[in-house]
Design a protein that fits this description.
heterodimer; A: mainly alpha; rod-shaped; B: mainly alpha
Amino acid sequence: MSYLMVAYGFAAVALAGYLVWSLRHLRQLKSKREG
Amino acid sequence: MSRLELAAAGAVALMLAAAGAIFLYAPTDALQGPVQRIFYFHAAAGLAAFGCFAVVLVGGFVYLWRESDAADRLARAGALVGVVFTTVTLVMGMMWAKPIWGAYWTWDARLTSTLVLLMIYAGYLLVRRLAEPGRQAARFAAVVGIFGFIDVPITYFSVTWWRTQHPSSIVVSDALPPEMLATFLFTMACTLVLAAVMIAVRYRIETLTDLAQSAHEPARIISSREPEPAR
């Protein structure tokens, strides 16, 4: 059971982390361009 | 909220629905127990990575054919998202292998070819990061992306071409019960949507980065000029 949790925990952290980081990076670039 | 942020929220909602199907709908495997549930996203993430690398292949061909900057940006976006999905596939596979095979890793054809795939596209990204942006780097990267894709069919067919510890595709061989097959296909569809949204976000980032670079380019040229001699 712990292997299952670690596997899905890693997937969730990696993908959600990447997505959030990308969206924040995109916002920064947009605000830099507008500002 | 921008359109891309809305699309990302939609993709996350779909992934939560997929998690619901994996943990609440799909039956527990009689032989392996709950750990078999790793299969659904492990396989879906692997196939999504192949899709991302196919985007790099197409982007590379279109760039070499038409010198389209948009195709180059698409290839860059596909490579980064593909590397993320390949990493997830490998780590999830290791977590599944330990309780079933007794080891996290074995130098089996499927695992090794997947690791090589990760290294090829990580190398591609490294080339893009280290090389001076421009036609030469884009051309070189397009060639790496096209030749790197050769490893995708090798990875996919490795379980049939060689005798491997990794099992062959149970979806193709029709060995899954209907509930498990439905869960896998739903997870696969949701994962492909997530990958597409991630590529779209990254593509936008690459576009804005390119625009910022081209805006700085004339300034750099002007500043590097020799000062005008005094008359």
